[in-house]
Design goal:
Layout: H1 13-24, H2 27-31, H3 33-39, H4 46-71, H5 75-82, H6 88-117, E1 137-138, E2 148-149, H7 150-160, H8 174-191, H9 195-205, H10 208-221, H11 226-234, H12 244-258, H13 264-269, H14 278-311, H15 323-335, H16 340-382, H17 385-399, H18 408-452, H19 458-481, E3 487-488, E4 491-492, H20 495-509, H21 511-522, H22 527-534
Parallel strand pairs: 1-2
Antiparallel strand pairs: 3-4
Helix pairs in contact: 1-9, 1-14, 1-16, 3-14, 4-12, 4-14, 4-18, 4-19, 5-6, 6-8, 6-16, 6-18, 6-21, 7-15, 8-16, 8-17, 9-16, 10-14, 10-16, 11-14, 12-19, 14-15, 16-17, 18-19, 18-20, 21-22
Protein backbone atom coordinates (compact mmCIF):
# COMPACT_ATOMS: atom_id res chain seq x y z
CA UNK A 1 0.00 0.00 0.00
CA UNK A 2 1.29 3.43 -0.78
CA UNK A 3 2.92 5.15 2.13
CA UNK A 4 2.66 8.62 0.67
CA UNK A 5 -1.13 8.92 0.41
CA UNK A 6 -2.06 12.51 1.29
CA UNK A 7 -4.45 11.63 4.11
CA UNK A 8 -4.58 13.54 7.41
CA UNK A 9 -2.75 11.83 10.24
CA UNK A 10 -2.76 12.21 14.01
CA UNK A 11 -0.44 15.02 15.15
CA UNK A 12 1.15 12.59 17.60
CA UNK A 13 0.69 8.83 17.74
CA UNK A 14 -0.28 9.02 21.42
CA UNK A 15 -3.42 10.88 20.26
CA UNK A 16 -4.64 7.80 18.40
CA UNK A 17 -3.87 5.58 21.40
CA UNK A 18 -5.84 7.88 23.69
CA UNK A 19 -8.69 8.15 21.16
CA UNK A 20 -8.75 4.35 20.92
CA UNK A 21 -8.87 4.04 24.71
CA UNK A 22 -11.64 6.64 24.85
CA UNK A 23 -13.60 4.82 22.15
CA UNK A 24 -13.28 1.41 23.84
CA UNK A 25 -13.76 2.61 27.41
CA UNK A 26 -17.34 3.81 27.71
CA UNK A 27 -20.45 3.65 29.82
CA UNK A 28 -20.63 -0.13 29.38
CA UNK A 29 -17.50 -0.46 31.54
CA UNK A 30 -19.32 1.31 34.37
CA UNK A 31 -22.78 -0.26 34.24
CA UNK A 32 -22.49 -3.53 32.33
CA UNK A 33 -19.30 -5.24 33.49
CA UNK A 34 -19.90 -5.00 37.29
CA UNK A 35 -23.42 -6.35 36.85
CA UNK A 36 -22.27 -9.28 34.69
CA UNK A 37 -19.51 -10.04 37.16
CA UNK A 38 -21.91 -10.13 40.11
CA UNK A 39 -24.47 -12.23 38.20
CA UNK A 40 -21.93 -14.67 36.80
CA UNK A 41 -20.03 -15.84 39.85
CA UNK A 42 -18.14 -12.78 41.12
CA UNK A 43 -14.39 -13.31 40.84
CA UNK A 44 -14.94 -16.54 38.89
CA UNK A 45 -16.25 -14.44 35.98
CA UNK A 46 -12.77 -12.97 35.58
CA UNK A 47 -11.50 -16.36 34.38
CA UNK A 48 -13.62 -16.55 31.18
CA UNK A 49 -13.46 -12.76 30.82
CA UNK A 50 -9.65 -12.62 30.73
CA UNK A 51 -9.47 -15.75 28.56
CA UNK A 52 -11.84 -14.19 26.02
CA UNK A 53 -9.75 -11.02 26.10
CA UNK A 54 -6.67 -13.02 25.07
CA UNK A 55 -8.20 -15.26 22.37
CA UNK A 56 -10.96 -12.97 21.03
CA UNK A 57 -10.59 -9.32 22.00
CA UNK A 58 -6.89 -8.71 21.35
CA UNK A 59 -6.64 -10.71 18.07
CA UNK A 60 -9.75 -9.12 16.54
CA UNK A 61 -8.70 -5.61 17.53
CA UNK A 62 -5.26 -6.33 16.05
CA UNK A 63 -7.01 -7.44 12.86
CA UNK A 64 -9.17 -4.30 12.59
CA UNK A 65 -6.35 -1.86 13.31
CA UNK A 66 -4.12 -3.61 10.76
CA UNK A 67 -6.76 -3.38 8.02
CA UNK A 68 -7.58 0.26 8.81
CA UNK A 69 -3.95 1.39 8.95
CA UNK A 70 -2.90 -0.54 5.83
CA UNK A 71 -5.86 0.39 3.65
CA UNK A 72 -5.96 3.96 4.99
CA UNK A 73 -9.70 3.99 4.48
CA UNK A 74 -12.86 3.93 6.54
CA UNK A 75 -14.75 0.64 6.97
CA UNK A 76 -16.66 0.85 3.65
CA UNK A 77 -13.62 1.24 1.40
CA UNK A 78 -11.43 -1.00 3.55
CA UNK A 79 -13.87 -3.92 3.38
CA UNK A 80 -14.49 -3.23 -0.30
CA UNK A 81 -10.76 -3.66 -0.95
CA UNK A 82 -10.45 -6.72 1.30
CA UNK A 83 -13.43 -8.61 -0.12
CA UNK A 84 -15.65 -6.88 -2.70
CA UNK A 85 -18.42 -9.45 -2.19
CA UNK A 86 -18.74 -8.52 1.50
CA UNK A 87 -18.24 -4.77 1.14
CA UNK A 88 -21.71 -4.47 2.67
CA UNK A 89 -20.14 -5.33 6.04
CA UNK A 90 -18.41 -1.95 5.96
CA UNK A 91 -21.68 -0.24 5.04
CA UNK A 92 -23.43 -2.10 7.86
CA UNK A 93 -20.77 -0.92 10.32
CA UNK A 94 -21.43 2.67 9.31
CA UNK A 95 -25.20 2.17 9.62
CA UNK A 96 -25.02 0.58 13.07
CA UNK A 97 -22.60 3.23 14.34
CA UNK A 98 -24.88 6.03 13.16
CA UNK A 99 -27.99 4.38 14.65
CA UNK A 100 -26.19 3.89 17.95
CA UNK A 101 -24.92 7.49 17.94
CA UNK A 102 -28.51 8.76 17.90
CA UNK A 103 -29.43 7.03 21.18
CA UNK A 104 -26.02 6.83 22.88
CA UNK A 105 -26.00 10.62 23.08
CA UNK A 106 -29.23 10.44 25.08
CA UNK A 107 -27.28 8.71 27.86
CA UNK A 108 -24.88 11.68 27.77
CA UNK A 109 -27.94 13.95 27.96
CA UNK A 110 -29.07 12.17 31.14
CA UNK A 111 -25.57 12.55 32.61
CA UNK A 112 -25.66 16.30 31.90
CA UNK A 113 -29.12 16.56 33.48
CA UNK A 114 -27.89 14.87 36.66
CA UNK A 115 -24.71 16.95 36.59
CA UNK A 116 -26.67 20.21 36.49
CA UNK A 117 -29.06 18.89 39.16
CA UNK A 118 -26.11 18.21 41.48
CA UNK A 119 -25.35 21.92 41.90
CA UNK A 120 -27.91 22.34 44.69
CA UNK A 121 -27.75 22.62 48.45
CA UNK A 122 -29.48 19.25 48.73
CA UNK A 123 -29.42 16.64 46.00
CA UNK A 124 -32.96 16.41 44.56
CA UNK A 125 -33.00 12.60 44.88
CA UNK A 126 -31.96 12.77 48.53
CA UNK A 127 -35.47 12.84 49.99
CA UNK A 128 -39.14 12.26 49.15
CA UNK A 129 -40.16 15.87 49.96
CA UNK A 130 -40.48 16.97 46.34
CA UNK A 131 -43.42 17.82 44.12
CA UNK A 132 -42.83 14.84 41.83
CA UNK A 133 -42.71 12.25 44.62
CA UNK A 134 -45.62 9.85 45.18
CA UNK A 135 -47.01 8.63 48.48
CA UNK A 136 -45.19 5.33 47.85
CA UNK A 137 -41.80 7.03 47.98
CA UNK A 138 -39.27 5.80 50.56
CA UNK A 139 -35.66 6.61 51.33
CA UNK A 140 -34.88 2.97 52.07
CA UNK A 141 -35.04 0.21 49.44
CA UNK A 142 -37.34 -2.63 50.36
CA UNK A 143 -38.47 -5.85 48.72
CA UNK A 144 -41.97 -4.43 48.37
CA UNK A 145 -43.16 -3.81 44.81
CA UNK A 146 -45.48 -1.10 46.11
CA UNK A 147 -42.76 1.31 47.18
CA UNK A 148 -40.05 3.16 45.25
CA UNK A 149 -36.95 5.04 46.34
CA UNK A 150 -36.37 8.78 46.03
CA UNK A 151 -33.73 8.19 43.34
CA UNK A 152 -36.10 5.96 41.34
CA UNK A 153 -38.80 8.60 41.41
CA UNK A 154 -36.38 11.37 40.42
CA UNK A 155 -35.29 9.33 37.38
CA UNK A 156 -38.79 8.25 36.41
CA UNK A 157 -41.06 11.14 37.35
CA UNK A 158 -38.78 14.19 37.37
CA UNK A 159 -36.22 13.68 34.60
CA UNK A 160 -38.08 11.34 32.22
CA UNK A 161 -41.70 12.02 33.20
CA UNK A 162 -42.17 8.63 31.55
CA UNK A 163 -45.45 7.30 30.24
CA UNK A 164 -46.88 3.88 30.97
CA UNK A 165 -45.56 2.26 27.81
CA UNK A 166 -44.55 2.64 24.19
CA UNK A 167 -48.23 3.04 23.23
CA UNK A 168 -48.31 6.45 24.97
CA UNK A 169 -45.90 8.85 23.29
CA UNK A 170 -46.45 11.82 25.58
CA UNK A 171 -44.85 15.17 24.77
CA UNK A 172 -41.31 16.43 24.30
CA UNK A 173 -39.36 17.07 27.52
CA UNK A 174 -38.02 20.47 26.52
CA UNK A 175 -35.39 20.48 29.27
CA UNK A 176 -33.98 17.22 27.95
CA UNK A 177 -34.20 18.40 24.35
CA UNK A 178 -32.13 21.51 25.10
CA UNK A 179 -29.56 19.40 26.92
CA UNK A 180 -29.52 16.96 23.98
CA UNK A 181 -28.81 19.94 21.74
CA UNK A 182 -25.99 20.98 24.08
CA UNK A 183 -24.58 17.44 23.96
CA UNK A 184 -24.50 17.50 20.15
CA UNK A 185 -22.83 20.91 20.19
CA UNK A 186 -20.11 19.42 22.42
CA UNK A 187 -19.72 16.49 20.00
CA UNK A 188 -19.46 18.85 17.03
CA UNK A 189 -16.79 20.97 18.71
CA UNK A 190 -14.80 17.79 19.40
CA UNK A 191 -14.76 16.49 15.82
CA UNK A 192 -15.43 19.33 13.36
CA UNK A 193 -11.73 19.62 12.47
CA UNK A 194 -11.32 15.86 12.10
CA UNK A 195 -8.39 14.13 13.78
CA UNK A 196 -6.73 17.48 14.44
CA UNK A 197 -9.46 18.55 16.89
CA UNK A 198 -10.28 15.04 18.15
CA UNK A 199 -6.62 14.43 18.93
CA UNK A 200 -6.52 17.39 21.31
CA UNK A 201 -9.80 16.59 23.07
CA UNK A 202 -8.87 13.01 23.95
CA UNK A 203 -6.00 14.13 26.16
CA UNK A 204 -8.70 15.22 28.60
CA UNK A 205 -11.70 12.98 27.91
CA UNK A 206 -9.66 9.75 27.91
CA UNK A 207 -7.47 10.50 30.94
CA UNK A 208 -9.59 12.55 33.35
CA UNK A 209 -12.13 9.76 34.07
CA UNK A 210 -9.32 7.76 35.68
CA UNK A 211 -8.58 10.60 38.09
CA UNK A 212 -12.23 10.58 39.17
CA UNK A 213 -12.46 6.77 39.33
CA UNK A 214 -9.42 6.60 41.62
CA UNK A 215 -10.75 9.44 43.79
CA UNK A 216 -14.13 7.70 44.08
CA UNK A 217 -12.44 4.40 44.98
CA UNK A 218 -10.30 6.04 47.71
CA UNK A 219 -13.43 7.65 49.14
CA UNK A 220 -15.58 4.52 48.90
CA UNK A 221 -13.20 2.03 50.51
CA UNK A 222 -13.13 4.17 53.65
CA UNK A 223 -16.91 3.91 54.03
CA UNK A 224 -18.39 1.36 56.44
CA UNK A 225 -19.50 -1.84 54.70
CA UNK A 226 -17.37 -1.19 51.61
CA UNK A 227 -15.31 -4.34 52.15
CA UNK A 228 -18.52 -6.43 52.12
CA UNK A 229 -19.43 -5.04 48.70
CA UNK A 230 -15.93 -5.65 47.30
CA UNK A 231 -15.97 -9.18 48.73
CA UNK A 232 -19.29 -9.81 47.00
CA UNK A 233 -17.74 -8.54 43.76
CA UNK A 234 -14.55 -10.64 43.75
CA UNK A 235 -15.21 -13.83 45.75
CA UNK A 236 -15.53 -16.63 43.16
CA UNK A 237 -18.50 -18.95 42.84
CA UNK A 238 -16.73 -21.62 40.83
CA UNK A 239 -19.87 -23.62 40.07
CA UNK A 240 -21.07 -20.75 37.85
CA UNK A 241 -18.26 -21.57 35.40
CA UNK A 242 -20.16 -24.71 34.43
CA UNK A 243 -22.81 -22.53 32.79
CA UNK A 244 -22.40 -21.88 29.06
CA UNK A 245 -24.15 -18.54 29.50
CA UNK A 246 -21.32 -17.23 31.70
CA UNK A 247 -18.76 -17.93 28.98
CA UNK A 248 -20.96 -16.38 26.29
CA UNK A 249 -21.51 -13.31 28.49
CA UNK A 250 -17.75 -12.97 28.96
CA UNK A 251 -17.11 -13.15 25.21
CA UNK A 252 -19.96 -10.75 24.44
CA UNK A 253 -18.73 -8.24 27.03
CA UNK A 254 -15.19 -8.25 25.58
CA UNK A 255 -16.66 -7.97 22.12
CA UNK A 256 -19.02 -5.07 22.76
CA UNK A 257 -16.71 -3.21 25.11
CA UNK A 258 -13.76 -3.05 22.70
CA UNK A 259 -16.16 -2.30 19.85
CA UNK A 260 -15.33 -5.01 17.32
CA UNK A 261 -17.53 -4.59 14.25
CA UNK A 262 -18.62 -1.02 14.92
CA UNK A 263 -15.99 0.39 12.56
CA UNK A 264 -14.94 3.16 14.96
CA UNK A 265 -11.42 1.96 15.69
CA UNK A 266 -10.92 0.85 12.09
CA UNK A 267 -11.85 4.34 10.88
CA UNK A 268 -9.58 6.09 13.40
CA UNK A 269 -6.64 3.77 12.61
CA UNK A 270 -6.91 4.82 8.95
CA UNK A 271 -5.41 8.17 10.02
CA UNK A 272 -2.31 6.50 11.50
CA UNK A 273 1.10 6.84 9.91
CA UNK A 274 1.76 3.87 7.66
CA UNK A 275 4.57 2.43 9.80
CA UNK A 276 2.88 2.83 13.17
CA UNK A 277 3.33 -0.12 15.56
CA UNK A 278 -0.10 -1.75 15.40
CA UNK A 279 0.52 -4.41 18.07
CA UNK A 280 1.56 -1.84 20.68
CA UNK A 281 -1.68 0.12 20.19
CA UNK A 282 -3.72 -3.09 20.21
CA UNK A 283 -2.32 -4.27 23.54
CA UNK A 284 -2.55 -0.81 25.12
CA UNK A 285 -6.19 -0.23 24.15
CA UNK A 286 -7.50 -3.72 24.97
CA UNK A 287 -5.68 -4.17 28.28
CA UNK A 288 -6.50 -0.69 29.60
CA UNK A 289 -10.13 -1.25 28.59
CA UNK A 290 -10.34 -4.44 30.68
CA UNK A 291 -8.45 -2.96 33.65
CA UNK A 292 -10.91 -0.04 33.60
CA UNK A 293 -13.83 -2.47 33.80
CA UNK A 294 -12.28 -4.19 36.83
CA UNK A 295 -11.49 -0.84 38.49
CA UNK A 296 -15.11 0.24 37.90
CA UNK A 297 -16.27 -2.95 39.60
CA UNK A 298 -14.36 -2.02 42.76
CA UNK A 299 -15.78 1.53 42.70
CA UNK A 300 -19.38 0.43 42.14
CA UNK A 301 -19.45 -2.45 44.61
CA UNK A 302 -17.64 -0.59 47.39
CA UNK A 303 -20.51 1.91 47.20
CA UNK A 304 -23.03 -0.93 47.16
CA UNK A 305 -21.43 -2.35 50.31
CA UNK A 306 -21.88 1.02 52.00
CA UNK A 307 -25.56 1.16 51.02
CA UNK A 308 -26.02 -2.42 52.20
CA UNK A 309 -24.53 -1.44 55.57
CA UNK A 310 -26.78 1.62 55.92
CA UNK A 311 -30.02 -0.05 54.92
CA UNK A 312 -29.55 -3.57 56.21
CA UNK A 313 -30.34 -5.33 52.93
CA UNK A 314 -28.10 -7.70 50.92
CA UNK A 315 -25.91 -6.28 48.16
CA UNK A 316 -27.66 -8.60 45.71
CA UNK A 317 -30.84 -6.55 46.11
CA UNK A 318 -29.05 -3.41 44.97
CA UNK A 319 -27.32 -4.61 41.81
CA UNK A 320 -29.28 -3.86 38.66
CA UNK A 321 -28.37 -3.73 34.98
CA UNK A 322 -28.12 -0.87 32.53
CA UNK A 323 -29.07 2.76 33.12
CA UNK A 324 -30.64 1.93 36.47
CA UNK A 325 -27.20 1.18 37.91
CA UNK A 326 -25.72 4.62 37.29
CA UNK A 327 -28.88 6.74 37.38
CA UNK A 328 -30.80 5.13 40.26
CA UNK A 329 -28.66 2.96 42.52
CA UNK A 330 -25.40 4.91 42.52
CA UNK A 331 -27.00 8.37 42.97
CA UNK A 332 -28.76 6.92 46.00
CA UNK A 333 -25.35 6.01 47.39
CA UNK A 334 -24.15 9.60 46.92
CA UNK A 335 -27.13 10.90 48.87
CA UNK A 336 -25.77 9.22 52.00
CA UNK A 337 -22.10 10.16 51.57
CA UNK A 338 -20.39 13.14 53.20
CA UNK A 339 -20.07 16.06 50.77
CA UNK A 340 -22.57 14.30 48.51
CA UNK A 341 -22.75 17.14 45.95
CA UNK A 342 -19.00 16.94 45.25
CA UNK A 343 -19.03 13.20 44.58
CA UNK A 344 -22.17 13.48 42.48
CA UNK A 345 -20.65 16.21 40.29
CA UNK A 346 -17.45 14.21 39.86
CA UNK A 347 -19.25 10.99 39.00
CA UNK A 348 -21.58 12.47 36.38
CA UNK A 349 -18.77 14.55 34.88
CA UNK A 350 -16.85 11.28 34.53
CA UNK A 351 -19.85 9.73 32.74
CA UNK A 352 -19.89 12.75 30.42
CA UNK A 353 -16.21 12.27 29.51
CA UNK A 354 -16.62 8.51 29.04
CA UNK A 355 -19.65 9.06 26.82
CA UNK A 356 -18.19 11.88 24.72
CA UNK A 357 -15.18 10.09 23.31
CA UNK A 358 -17.20 6.94 22.57
CA UNK A 359 -19.86 9.08 20.88
CA UNK A 360 -17.59 11.09 18.64
CA UNK A 361 -15.87 7.86 17.55
CA UNK A 362 -19.26 6.63 16.28
CA UNK A 363 -19.95 9.88 14.44
CA UNK A 364 -16.44 9.85 12.96
CA UNK A 365 -17.25 6.51 11.27
CA UNK A 366 -20.09 8.12 9.33
CA UNK A 367 -18.08 11.25 8.47
CA UNK A 368 -14.98 9.33 7.35
CA UNK A 369 -16.93 6.85 5.23
CA UNK A 370 -19.01 9.47 3.44
CA UNK A 371 -15.97 11.67 2.81
CA UNK A 372 -14.05 8.68 1.43
CA UNK A 373 -16.87 7.85 -0.98
CA UNK A 374 -18.44 11.19 -1.94
CA UNK A 375 -15.75 13.78 -1.23
CA UNK A 376 -16.10 15.80 -4.43
CA UNK A 377 -19.89 15.95 -4.33
CA UNK A 378 -19.98 16.79 -0.62
CA UNK A 379 -17.37 19.53 -0.93
CA UNK A 380 -19.22 20.97 -3.91
CA UNK A 381 -22.43 21.17 -1.87
CA UNK A 382 -21.14 22.05 1.63
CA UNK A 383 -18.01 23.97 0.53
CA UNK A 384 -16.06 22.81 3.60
CA UNK A 385 -15.85 19.71 5.78
CA UNK A 386 -16.92 21.61 8.91
CA UNK A 387 -20.38 22.30 7.46
CA UNK A 388 -20.76 18.67 6.43
CA UNK A 389 -19.92 17.48 9.96
CA UNK A 390 -22.46 20.00 11.25
CA UNK A 391 -25.11 18.50 8.94
CA UNK A 392 -24.36 14.97 10.19
CA UNK A 393 -24.59 16.07 13.84
CA UNK A 394 -27.77 18.04 13.11
CA UNK A 395 -29.43 15.04 11.45
CA UNK A 396 -28.49 12.77 14.37
CA UNK A 397 -29.82 15.35 16.84
CA UNK A 398 -33.20 15.44 15.07
CA UNK A 399 -33.34 11.64 15.09
CA UNK A 400 -32.74 11.80 18.83
CA UNK A 401 -35.98 13.69 19.52
CA UNK A 402 -38.06 10.53 20.22
CA UNK A 403 -35.67 9.70 23.07
CA UNK A 404 -36.36 12.99 24.87
CA UNK A 405 -40.11 12.58 24.71
CA UNK A 406 -41.94 11.11 27.68
CA UNK A 407 -41.90 7.74 25.92
CA UNK A 408 -38.14 8.08 25.42
CA UNK A 409 -36.91 5.41 27.85
CA UNK A 410 -38.97 2.76 26.04
CA UNK A 411 -37.67 3.86 22.62
CA UNK A 412 -34.14 3.79 24.04
CA UNK A 413 -34.54 0.26 25.40
CA UNK A 414 -36.03 -0.98 22.11
CA UNK A 415 -33.21 0.50 20.02
CA UNK A 416 -30.48 -0.75 22.35
CA UNK A 417 -31.90 -4.27 22.48
CA UNK A 418 -32.14 -4.79 18.74
CA UNK A 419 -29.07 -2.80 17.69
CA UNK A 420 -26.47 -3.74 20.27
CA UNK A 421 -27.56 -7.34 20.84
CA UNK A 422 -28.95 -8.61 17.53
CA UNK A 423 -27.12 -6.76 14.75
CA UNK A 424 -23.53 -6.57 15.91
CA UNK A 425 -22.91 -10.33 16.05
CA UNK A 426 -23.98 -10.76 12.41
CA UNK A 427 -21.64 -7.96 11.36
CA UNK A 428 -18.74 -9.39 13.32
CA UNK A 429 -19.13 -12.86 11.86
CA UNK A 430 -19.13 -11.62 8.27
CA UNK A 431 -16.26 -9.22 8.98
CA UNK A 432 -14.09 -12.07 10.26
CA UNK A 433 -15.06 -14.24 7.28
CA UNK A 434 -14.16 -11.42 4.86
CA UNK A 435 -10.81 -10.54 6.43
CA UNK A 436 -9.54 -13.82 7.90
CA UNK A 437 -10.86 -16.36 5.42
CA UNK A 438 -11.38 -14.63 2.06
CA UNK A 439 -8.68 -11.92 2.22
CA UNK A 440 -6.63 -14.46 4.12
CA UNK A 441 -4.45 -14.67 7.19
CA UNK A 442 -1.31 -14.80 5.01
CA UNK A 443 -2.15 -11.54 3.23
CA UNK A 444 -2.98 -9.87 6.53
CA UNK A 445 0.32 -11.05 7.97
CA UNK A 446 2.18 -9.77 4.90
CA UNK A 447 0.51 -6.38 5.33
CA UNK A 448 1.85 -6.25 8.88
CA UNK A 449 5.33 -7.10 7.63
CA UNK A 450 5.13 -4.30 5.06
CA UNK A 451 4.14 -1.78 7.74
CA UNK A 452 6.15 -2.95 10.75
CA UNK A 453 8.77 -5.27 9.30
CA UNK A 454 7.43 -8.28 11.18
CA UNK A 455 4.72 -10.83 10.40
CA UNK A 456 2.01 -11.89 12.82
CA UNK A 457 3.08 -14.77 15.07
CA UNK A 458 1.48 -18.22 15.11
CA UNK A 459 -0.83 -17.34 18.03
CA UNK A 460 -2.58 -14.53 16.13
CA UNK A 461 -2.76 -16.62 12.97
CA UNK A 462 -4.54 -19.45 14.78
CA UNK A 463 -6.92 -17.03 16.53
CA UNK A 464 -7.77 -15.30 13.25
CA UNK A 465 -8.19 -18.50 11.28
CA UNK A 466 -9.98 -20.79 13.75
CA UNK A 467 -10.67 -19.58 17.30
CA UNK A 468 -12.27 -16.18 16.62
CA UNK A 469 -14.66 -17.33 13.84
CA UNK A 470 -15.76 -20.35 15.90
CA UNK A 471 -16.31 -18.29 19.06
CA UNK A 472 -18.30 -15.60 17.24
CA UNK A 473 -20.45 -18.27 15.56
CA UNK A 474 -21.11 -19.90 18.96
CA UNK A 475 -22.04 -16.55 20.51
CA UNK A 476 -24.35 -15.78 17.58
CA UNK A 477 -26.08 -19.18 17.74
CA UNK A 478 -26.44 -18.99 21.52
CA UNK A 479 -27.79 -15.43 21.27
CA UNK A 480 -30.43 -16.59 18.78
CA UNK A 481 -31.41 -19.60 20.92
CA UNK A 482 -31.58 -17.55 24.11
CA UNK A 483 -33.11 -14.49 22.46
CA UNK A 484 -35.86 -12.83 24.49
CA UNK A 485 -38.19 -10.03 23.38
CA UNK A 486 -37.27 -6.54 24.52
CA UNK A 487 -38.61 -5.42 27.89
CA UNK A 488 -38.11 -2.57 30.32
CA UNK A 489 -38.40 -3.52 33.98
CA UNK A 490 -41.76 -5.38 34.12
CA UNK A 491 -43.06 -3.89 30.87
CA UNK A 492 -42.97 -6.21 27.83
CA UNK A 493 -43.08 -4.50 24.44
CA UNK A 494 -46.13 -5.34 22.31
CA UNK A 495 -45.70 -7.35 19.08
CA UNK A 496 -45.88 -4.29 16.81
CA UNK A 497 -43.03 -2.65 18.76
CA UNK A 498 -41.00 -5.87 18.51
CA UNK A 499 -41.60 -5.72 14.76
CA UNK A 500 -40.19 -2.19 14.64
CA UNK A 501 -37.20 -3.51 16.60
CA UNK A 502 -36.49 -6.11 13.92
CA UNK A 503 -36.80 -3.43 11.23
CA UNK A 504 -34.18 -1.42 13.15
CA UNK A 505 -31.93 -4.49 13.32
CA UNK A 506 -32.37 -5.06 9.57
CA UNK A 507 -31.50 -1.42 8.82
CA UNK A 508 -27.86 -2.38 9.35
CA UNK A 509 -27.82 -6.09 8.44
CA UNK A 510 -29.56 -5.53 5.07
CA UNK A 511 -26.47 -3.77 3.70
CA UNK A 512 -24.55 -7.08 3.63
CA UNK A 513 -26.72 -8.77 0.95
CA UNK A 514 -27.31 -5.45 -0.85
CA UNK A 515 -23.55 -4.88 -1.06
CA UNK A 516 -23.03 -8.39 -2.44
CA UNK A 517 -25.73 -7.91 -5.10
CA UNK A 518 -24.26 -4.55 -6.14
CA UNK A 519 -20.75 -6.01 -6.43
CA UNK A 520 -21.93 -8.88 -8.63
CA UNK A 521 -23.92 -6.41 -10.74
CA UNK A 522 -21.03 -4.03 -11.51
CA UNK A 523 -18.24 -6.57 -12.02
CA UNK A 524 -17.65 -7.61 -15.66
CA UNK A 525 -17.84 -11.10 -17.16
CA UNK A 526 -20.06 -14.14 -16.78
CA UNK A 527 -21.70 -15.02 -13.48
CA UNK A 528 -18.86 -17.37 -12.45
CA UNK A 529 -16.28 -14.77 -13.44
CA UNK A 530 -18.16 -12.19 -11.36
CA UNK A 531 -18.18 -14.54 -8.36
CA UNK A 532 -14.46 -15.22 -8.72
CA UNK A 533 -13.66 -11.52 -8.99
CA UNK A 534 -15.94 -10.70 -6.06
CA UNK A 535 -13.71 -12.65 -3.68
CA UNK A 536 -10.52 -11.20 -5.19
CA UNK A 537 -9.05 -8.35 -3.11
CA UNK A 538 -8.97 -4.95 -4.85
CA UNK A 539 -11.10 -6.19 -7.76
CA UNK A 540 -13.37 -3.16 -7.47
CA UNK A 541 -10.55 -0.61 -7.67
CA UNK A 542 -11.04 -0.08 -11.37
CA UNK A 543 -14.62 1.06 -10.91
CA UNK A 544 -14.47 2.83 -7.57
CA UNK A 545 -14.69 6.57 -7.65
CA UNK A 546 -11.64 8.60 -6.78
CA UNK A 547 -11.20 8.32 -2.99
CA UNK A 548 -10.89 11.04 -0.39
CA UNK A 549 -7.61 13.00 -0.25
CA UNK A 550 -6.34 11.49 -3.51
CA UNK A 551 -7.84 13.93 -5.96
CA UNK A 552 -4.49 14.92 -7.42
CA UNK A 553 -3.47 11.43 -8.53
CA UNK A 554 -2.96 10.72 -12.23
CA UNK A 555 -5.39 8.07 -13.43
CA UNK A 556 -2.98 7.22 -16.20
CA UNK A 557 -3.30 3.94 -18.08
CA UNK A 558 -5.47 1.14 -16.77
CA UNK A 559 -3.47 -1.59 -15.10
CA UNK A 560 -4.60 -5.11 -14.22
CA UNK A 561 -6.60 -4.94 -10.99
CA UNK A 562 -4.62 -7.75 -9.42
CA UNK A 563 -1.18 -6.33 -10.13
CA UNK A 564 -1.83 -2.77 -9.01
CA UNK A 565 -3.30 -2.11 -5.61
CA UNK A 566 -4.67 1.35 -6.38
CA UNK A 567 -4.86 2.67 -9.90
CA UNK A 568 -5.28 6.27 -8.71
CA UNK A 569 -1.58 6.45 -7.74
CA UNK A 570 1.11 7.03 -10.38
CA UNK A 571 3.18 3.89 -10.89
CA UNK A 572 6.47 5.71 -10.39
CA UNK A 573 5.52 6.87 -6.89
CA UNK A 574 4.86 3.38 -5.52
CA UNK A 575 7.11 1.73 -2.95
CA UNK A 576 9.01 -1.43 -4.00
CA UNK A 577 6.34 -3.74 -2.60
CA UNK A 578 3.19 -3.24 -4.68
CA UNK A 579 1.04 -6.15 -3.67
CA UNK A 580 0.88 -9.03 -1.30
CA UNK A 581 -1.21 -11.41 -3.37
Amino acid sequence: MDQQISRPTWSKQIEFTLAGIGCAVGLGNIWRFPYLCYRSGGGAFLVPYLLMLVVLGIPLLYMELTVGQYMRRGPVHALSNVCPLLKGVGMASVAISFIMSTYYNVVITWALYYLFSSFQEHLPWQSCNNTWNTHNCTNHPTNSSYSSTASQEFFKYKMLEQTGGVEESGVIRWELFLILLLAWILIYLCIFKGVKSTGKVVYFTALFPYVILIALLINNINLPGAIDGITFFIVPEWDKLLSVEVWVNAAAQIFNSIGIGFGSLLAMSSYNSFNNNVLKDTLTISIINSLTSILSGFVIFSAFGYMSHLQGIPVSKLAVDGPGLVYIVYPQAFANMPVSQLWSVMFFFMLLCLGLDSEFAMVEVMVTSLMDEFNQQLMKFFRCKELFVLAVCGAACLLGIPYVMQVGIFVFQLMDHYTAIVSIMFLALFEVIAICWIYGVNRLSDNLEEMNGKKANIFFRVCWLIIAPVLIAVILIFSIIQFKPARYEEYVFPPWAQGIGWVIAMASIIWIPLGAIHTLWVLPGSFMQKVKLSVTPYALNEILKMPYYERGGNRGDRYPVIAVINSTIPLGDKPPIQTNL
